[in-house]
């Protein structure tokens, strides 16, 4: 809060000048000079910083101030210098409520800090002793006029003590530097020349926008049956899929994501393994949307009715699950749009409509949308569809290939939807170039698929984890899906069960957002020859699974995944993106990272050590930067070691700065360690 005298002394920006009385530059997190808001969720720690400096040698103070959507100040933190000689200041803001907040950086002359610095040096040297004590007395006398009664009385007593020549110099100076004085100054510094930066936006969205565990499955495969006599399949329904929700909730997931649930076209329908010829009973790809039964606003008749879907959503809600629906803006040749709005597609010179291609892949059963011929009409129709599904309880949309549509359209659509429904979340399935992925985040996508899927080595992971936590978190929230119906990496194809464990640990511990496509818990790993895709891909055929039998026989990763999600829910440090730090190990396949967070209940610190080689046992010395762990004296024993509890195995170890680690990929390839506080 700025006092009246501070306002009078406040150095406002004179017209036409860019620097204030105290120069403030390079503020963060700021996205394109504030054109787009930085992202946050309630309770997340947002790293703020700025380069702030001034002329001369007087001491400087820097604060960050957070304002709620109404413009009310809700938090003020003092920043600390980082990097000697760089004039860089940093700290943390923690918004508590949703909405479009703003924050500013304030730079100011630290009057007490300047007096303390000068008085300590000069009085010790016997220079200007009485003058320094008199200046201190004058400082506290002036400050007392704008303090609460308690602090005002303290400051007046201090001014009197500094002026009391009957006392020794050391006693007088000690009164001005007492713990009580430092405590009062820490609560409310004595400031002059207060200069505020431009306000910058900070959009605080609901928790699932930035913290969630996702589980993907195909409703049609749940309860699907095969008749060997007729060689035909019967599709599962939403009623069958509803029974799967209990198991998903039991694994501590937050979001159930469904591929498209709409009618599927017959024309150019794909057969098993993406073959060009489909049999009469082949279900086709759910992404080939549209048939005479309807398009994006309809439900495939094999799955059931809207009443069945509503019951599915309601049961999910009872289990504290949310449903995410695929939003795929494309159409089969049979989609009603092809007849009613051919201008929404690309027509070739021979009169045919262009189908989708991603060379060398071809999708003859899908027509891409063209936004250039009738952008207003097409945008209006997409908005209608999204709002319709919101009315049926869908608040999360996983958007298929958003990078193949104009970024401008997404900015318009998301803003339009979020103005009316601020809790609606959009996930970008955009495995593409960084510039596009980051632009989609700026445009409003709350989260995105990421490059994590293809980052496997220690070096690759260290680099990527640093990027997503310290370079791009203001606008890009990565969802670390370990697999998708389209993507089965070589690491999983050949890594065995250990590979599946390793990737699950990395995804769930490094990012507050992670996801699993069904079958992962069953170690499904056989690829179509020559491809990074599953053989007998569920995109083109039914794939019922006996999850219960696999778990009963010990062939399931479900208990391990359940434990990982439970750890995430129990440890607030794992719910933030920006608090990840890389630590050292001597082994080229042993990755070490730490997530640390201060909460009202205390400090929460998780140390993750992972053997990223799924084929062997690795030994290493792990070296921790103890300063980042913020250990208190009560956390340490007489040898300077502290206790860590392994949240996977239940073991307890005494650790210090340097620690021997041996991880057998075929037993437990990772430690997830929680530092035991205040022993």
UniProtKB/TrEMBL annotation:
<comment type="function">
    <text>Maltosyltransferase that uses maltose 1-phosphate (M1P) as the sugar donor to elongate linear or branched alpha-(1-&gt;4)-glucans. Is involved in a branched alpha-glucan biosynthetic pathway from trehalose, together with TreS, Mak and GlgB.</text>
</comment>
<dbReference type="InterPro" id="IPR013780">
    <property type="entry name" value="Glyco_hydro_b"/>
</dbReference>
<feature type="active site" description="Proton donor">
    <location>
        <position position="429"/>
    </location>
</feature>
<feature type="binding site">
    <location>
        <begin position="539"/>
        <end position="540"/>
    </location>
    <ligand>
        <name>alpha-maltose 1-phosphate</name>
    </ligand>
</feature>
<dbReference type="GO" id="GO:0004553">
    <property type="term" value="F:hydrolase activity, hydrolyzing O-glycosyl compounds"/>
</dbReference>
<protein>
    <recommendedName>
        <fullName>Alpha-1,4-glucan:maltose-1-phosphate maltosyltransferase</fullName>
        <ecNumber>2.4.99.16</ecNumber>
    </recommendedName>
</protein>
<dbReference type="InterPro" id="IPR021828">
    <property type="entry name" value="GlgE_dom_N/S"/>
</dbReference>
<feature type="active site" description="Nucleophile">
    <location>
        <position position="400"/>
    </location>
</feature>
<keyword id="KW-0808">Transferase</keyword>
<feature type="binding site">
    <location>
        <position position="365"/>
    </location>
    <ligand>
        <name>alpha-maltose 1-phosphate</name>
    </ligand>
</feature>
<comment type="subunit">
    <text>Homodimer.</text>
</comment>
<dbReference type="InterPro" id="IPR049171">
    <property type="entry name" value="GLGE_C"/>
</dbReference>
<dbReference type="GO" id="GO:0016758">
    <property type="term" value="F:hexosyltransferase activity"/>
</dbReference>
<feature type="binding site">
    <location>
        <position position="270"/>
    </location>
    <ligand>
        <name>alpha-maltose 1-phosphate</name>
    </ligand>
</feature>
<feature type="site" description="Transition state stabilizer">
    <location>
        <position position="486"/>
    </location>
</feature>
<comment type="similarity">
    <text>Belongs to the glycosyl hydrolase 13 family. GlgE subfamily.</text>
</comment>
<dbReference type="InterPro" id="IPR017853">
    <property type="entry name" value="GH"/>
</dbReference>
<dbReference type="Pfam" id="PF21702">
    <property type="entry name" value="GLGE_C"/>
</dbReference>
<feature type="binding site">
    <location>
        <position position="330"/>
    </location>
    <ligand>
        <name>alpha-maltose 1-phosphate</name>
    </ligand>
</feature>
<keyword id="KW-0119">Carbohydrate metabolism</keyword>
<dbReference type="Pfam" id="PF11896">
    <property type="entry name" value="GlgE_dom_N_S"/>
</dbReference>
<feature type="binding site">
    <location>
        <position position="401"/>
    </location>
    <ligand>
        <name>alpha-maltose 1-phosphate</name>
    </ligand>
</feature>
<feature type="domain" description="Glycosyl hydrolase family 13 catalytic">
    <location>
        <begin position="212"/>
        <end position="568"/>
    </location>
</feature>
<keyword id="KW-0328">Glycosyltransferase</keyword>
<dbReference type="GO" id="GO:0030979">
    <property type="term" value="P:alpha-glucan biosynthetic process"/>
</dbReference>
<dbReference type="InterPro" id="IPR006047">
    <property type="entry name" value="GH13_cat_dom"/>
</dbReference>
<dbReference type="InterPro" id="IPR026585">
    <property type="entry name" value="GlgE"/>
</dbReference>
<dbReference type="InterPro" id="IPR013783">
    <property type="entry name" value="Ig-like_fold"/>
</dbReference>
């Amino acid at each position: 809060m700025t006092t009246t005298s501070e306002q009078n002394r406040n150095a406002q920006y004179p017209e036409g000048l860019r620097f204030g009385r105290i120069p403030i530059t390079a503020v963060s997190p700021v996205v394109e000079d504030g054109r787009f808001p930085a992202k946050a969720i309630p309770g997340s720690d947002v790293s703020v910083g700025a380069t702030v400096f001034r002329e001369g040698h007087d001491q400087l103070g820097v604060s960050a101030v957070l304002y709620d959507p109404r413009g009310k100040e809700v938090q003020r933190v003092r920043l600390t210098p980082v990097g000697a000689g760089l004039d860089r200041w940093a700290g943390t803001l923690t918004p508590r409520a949703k909405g479009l907040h703003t924050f500013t950086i304030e730079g100011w002359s630290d009057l007490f800090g300047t007096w303390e610095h000068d008085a300590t040096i000069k009085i010790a040297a016997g220079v200007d002793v009485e003058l320094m004590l008199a200046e201190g007395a004058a400082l506290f006398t002036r400050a007392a006029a704008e303090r609460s009664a308690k602090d005002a009385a303290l400051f007046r007593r201090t001014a009197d003590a500094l002026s009391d020549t009957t006392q020794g110099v050391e006693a007088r100076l000690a009164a001005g530097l007492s713990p009580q004085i430092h405590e009062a100054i820490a609560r409310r510094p004595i400031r002059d020349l207060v200069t505020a930066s431009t306000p910058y936006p900070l959009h605080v969205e609901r928790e699932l926008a930035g913290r969630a565990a996702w589980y993907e499955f195909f409703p049609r495969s749940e309860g699907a049956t095969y008749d060997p006599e007729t060689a035909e399949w019967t599709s599962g329904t939403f009623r069958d899929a509803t029974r799967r929700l209990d198991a998903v909730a039991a694994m501590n997931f937050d979001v159930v994501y469904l591929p498209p649930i709409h009618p599927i076209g017959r024309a150019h329908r794909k057969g098993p393994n993406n073959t060009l010829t489909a049999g009469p009973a082949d279900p086709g790809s759910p992404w080939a949307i549209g048939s005479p039964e309807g398009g994006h606003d309809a439900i495939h008749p094999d799955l059931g009715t809207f009443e069945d879907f509503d019951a599915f959503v309601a049961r999910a809600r009872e289990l504290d699950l949310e449903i995410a629906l695929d939003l795929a803006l494309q159409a089969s040749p049979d989609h009603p749009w092809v007849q009613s709005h051919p201008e929404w597609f690309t027509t070739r010179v021979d009169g045919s409509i262009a189908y989708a291609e991603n060379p060398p892949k071809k999708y003859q059963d899908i027509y891409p949308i063209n936004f250039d011929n009738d952008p207003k009409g097409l945008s209006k129709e997409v908005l209608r569809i999204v709002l319709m599904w919101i009315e049926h309880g869908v608040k999360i949309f996983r958007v298929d290939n958003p990078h193949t549509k104009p970024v401008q359209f997404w900015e318009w659509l998301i803003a339009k939807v979020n103005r009316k429904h601020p809790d609606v979340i959009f996930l970008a399935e955009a495995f593409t170039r960084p510039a596009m992925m980051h632009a989609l985040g700026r445009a409003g996508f709350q989260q995105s698929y990421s490059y994590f899927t293809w980052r496997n080595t220690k070096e690759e992971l260290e680099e990527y984890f640093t990027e997503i936590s310290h370079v791009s978190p203001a606008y890009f929230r990565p969802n670390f899906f370990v697999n998708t119906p389209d993507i089965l990496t070589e690491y999983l194809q050949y890594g065995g069960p250990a590979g599946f464990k390793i990737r699950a640990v990395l995804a769930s511990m490094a990012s507050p957002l992670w996801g699993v496509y069904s079958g992962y818990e069953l170690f499904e790993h056989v690829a179509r020859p020559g491809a990074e895709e599953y053989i007998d891909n569920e995109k083109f055929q039914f794939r019922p699974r006996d999850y219960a039998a696999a778990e009963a026989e010990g062939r399931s990763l479900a208990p391990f995944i359940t434990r990982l999600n439970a750890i995430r829910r129990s440890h607030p440090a794992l719910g933030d993106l920006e608090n990840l730090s890389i630590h050292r190990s001597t082994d080229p396949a042993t990755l070490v990272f730490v997530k640390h967070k201060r909460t009202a209940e205390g400090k929460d610190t998780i140390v993750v050590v992972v053997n990223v080689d799924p084929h062997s046992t690795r030994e290493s010395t792990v070296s921790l930067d103890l300063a980042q762990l913020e250990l208190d004296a009560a956390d340490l024993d007489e040898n300077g070691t502290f206790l860590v509890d392994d949240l996977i195995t239940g073991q307890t170890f005494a650790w210090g700065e340097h620690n021997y680690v041996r991880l057998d990929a075929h037993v437990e390839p990772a430690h997830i360690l929680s530092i035991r506080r205040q022993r």
